[in-house]
What we know:
The protein has a single domain, classed as Alpha-Beta Barrel (TIM Barrel), CATH 3.20.20. The mean pLDDT is 95. The termini are far apart. The chain has a seven-stranded parallel beta sheet with strand order 3-4-5-8-9-10-11. Strands 1-2 form a two-stranded antiparallel ribbon. Strand 6 (93-95) and strand 7 form a beta hairpin. Helix 1 (41-54) crosses helix 2, helix 7 crosses helix 8 (241-252) and helix 8 packs across helix 9. The protein is globular, with a radius of gyration of 18 Å. It has ten helices and eleven strands. The relative contact order is 0.14. The chain has helices spanning 41-54, 69-78, 107-121, 148-159, 173-180, 200-209, 224-237, 241-252, 265-274, 281-288, and strands at 10-14, 17-20, 24-25, 58-60, 86-91, 93-95, 101-103, 126-132, 163-169, 185-191, 212-216. 39% of the residues lie in helices and 18% in strands. It is of the alpha/beta class.
Amino acid sequence: MTDVTLPGGNFKLADDITVNRMGYGAMQLAGPGVFGQPKDRDGAIAVLQRAVQMGVNHIDTSDFYGPHITNQIIKEALHPYPDGLTIVTKVGAKRDDTGNWLPAASPDELRQAVHDNLENLGLDVLDVVNFRIHSGEDSHGVPHGSIAEPFSVLAELQKQGLIRHLGISTATAEQVTEAQSIAPVVCVQNMYNIANRNDDALIDSLAAQGIAYVPYFPLGGFSPLQSETLNSVAQRLGTSPMGIALAWLLQRSPNILLIPGTSSVEHLEEDVAGTATQLPQDVIEELNGIAG
């Protein structure tokens, strides 16, 4: 694939994987509510192909997006995959017939999910699998409790050669530590942005260990007042609010990897351009002041 270093540079995710910090999240490629077929499948394929053309070499996905459909679109768009492309998927949830998000963390469900990802992506081994901890109530809340049993199942699949590396999603610091006692963890994927900074200490801890932190929802959970401040900064610097949010994340810590999602080539190009914005220190302090 194109050997391009995008804004923010790159990060060594594992001994055998180095990715650009600007990646792409494929969640929005399925239909409304991340369920069913997209309205424009050709457009979804075009977004993936343009992302790789621009130098994106880290794609985040899951077989429960659609379900199955997003992975099938990735395969259609990019298979056979170019050298250097890393696809990170996640397991631990499923969808019912109406699109509700349900936990799926039994040993049999996890094994099936890994095999579904392999089949729909057209792979013999998965680069990285995140165990997504699901509360069963708020699909983006962080549930508490032990994850030893499900993470051990994934560690066994790793030993079998079906998974190269493991990560964890929607996790507390304690759950990250527990997972690390079972198998090496190469990334943690949680909700985090300018306005929602509960993971500040976790990010710093992971950075000290050389472990990637992958935030999702860069504009999620903003109050109207917080959005007003973000919009004002974006207008002054001549870029989009999303561009400012992504640029702030890149400057927050060198172990942060971005996976913004879009089903539009235009928005993809805007996101990549926005990450090149260098935020002055006074702007960073202004943005830090809106944290909830």
